[in-house]
Please model this.
Amino acid sequence: MEYNGSMRIVQIIFWITSGIVIIGGVFLMLPSLIFPFFALISPKIPEPEITYGEFPFRIEYELDGQINIIEDTVIAEFNGCEFSAGSMKRERRWRSRLASGREDLPFGDDLGIYFSRGSAQYYMGENVQSMSLKPHIALRNLEEGFKREVDFILGESGYIRTVLNFGEAQEVLTQYGITLINWEISEPIVNNFGD
Model:
């Protein structure tokens, strides 16, 4: 009798453990099973009317008594639509590059101050209010391996980055020996998305 009782307990423990493992596995796999379903039923979004744009910019500054100019053109292109797991809906994809082929546009060689060109989404008229997408100047802490980045955008105030007007930006850059003389950035286009 003891043998049957202990065997019965082992069976119960086995089935409970198996049930927990199966339920846990289903729970862990559920997002990957639901994602394709939402991608299939998610409505298509229209393509933008304008799919390509070129946006020149020019920044003039003085560093160590020498006038420097950062001048280039942001090329922005529509890159199709895809389903986003984050928003659980289809979103337009954009890509941008500089006409010069460069990635970073530094102020000086080792100051850790860069011009960030902004996103193609911003220039092409989609979500132009998002502060994180606008062109800005980034102060990166080189000693910490680019882990900390303090950005400021020349323009109106926002909540994501510290936003400075032209005069305030000049004050910040002066701390690094940079005098900002002129800042000319192309405005985003007005685009039609058919939404």
Summary: The chain has two domains: 1-41, 52-185.
